[in-house]
Amino acid sequence: MLRRRTKPLVAAKPNGPLWIAEDLFRDDRALLVDDDAVAPLSGENHLSTALVDYLLQRSLQPTDLQDTTLVGSANSLHFFHQVNAKIATAPSDPNVAKSVENIRQRCSHYKDNKFEFLSPFCIDHHFVAVKIVFDLRSPDIFHEVSVYDSLIKGGRRNNSVHRNSPPAKYLRSFQQFIANFCLFGNPKCEVLLANPDHIVEKAVYRSCPMQQNGFDCGLFAFGCVLHLLKGLDVSADIFNQQHISKLRESLHAVFTVTDIK
Question: Which of 36, 49, 63, 121 has the fewest CB atoms within 10 Å around its CB?
């Protein structure tokens, strides 16, 4: 059995800033892995969001990141759905209304700077990576919306993200969160709510390494985000399927031979 980490990376701050999508480096969670998360590494299996998050959190320290760089969980779509759903029930439930107000207060700091949000995320049984640069002070809120999909090549004639694609569902949820919780009371809030596809219209697929099988998307998304966080251009040849296959083998060996502290 793997040894679990129990010591928090940072002190819990329940009344402090709310980090978008449970930021892996600034939230108060020390991520855990167990045998169920590690077992899929041994074969041609999809990995869990828990393992992808754990790998990303253990690859960098909070001090490695700029204050304006945010890193979302691989399960961040669930975060957006859960938080956005509060808006519909708040008018009829005082406790939910209080929670919504608390979240808005804790998100107020996003109005004061330009931020870069990066995340691997799982949607429709496939991992994708995203990079969103946004500035709530700017007339054009979303300065960059880049999608990295290891099954879709960038550099095509049309790199736009289709409004019915899985990444578009994620982006709409992100925009809804920004509108409801970071821009509440600002005229820009109503603009974004009136056009849920605004962020999708700005999104493009970027060139990134391509997987050659149907189960390594989690490690490809992890690799893309890690390279972007280190300031590296994610070109199609920065790593390849051979590297990812070797990484999978090495991770399985490390997790099954060594206790994780």
Answer: 63
Nearest 10 degrees: Cα torsion 107, 108, 114, 118: 0
Cα-only R_g, the chain? 19
Tokens describing residue 161 = 């993200």
Does an H or E element contain 70, and which?
A: strand 69-71
For the segment 41-68, the average pLDDT, to the nearest whole number, is 91
First to last CA, the chain: 12
User: What does the pLDDT look like over 85-136, one tens digit per residue?
Assistant: 999 999 999 999 999 999 999 898 899 999 999 999 999 999 999 999 999 9
pLDDT, tens digit, for every residue of 187-219? 999 999 999 999 999 999 999 999 999 999 999
What is the C-alpha separation between 217 and 205, in angstroms, rounded? 16
The residue count for the chain: 261
Alpha carbons 72 and 27: distance in angstroms, whole number: 10
The pTM assigned to this predicted structure is: 0.90
3 state SS of 146: strand
Task: Collapse the DSSP code of 43 into the 3-class scheme (helix H, G, I; strand E, B; otherwise coil) and give the result.
Answer: coil
Q: Is 95 exposed, middle or buried (0-12, 13-18, 19+ CB in 10 A)?
A: exposed
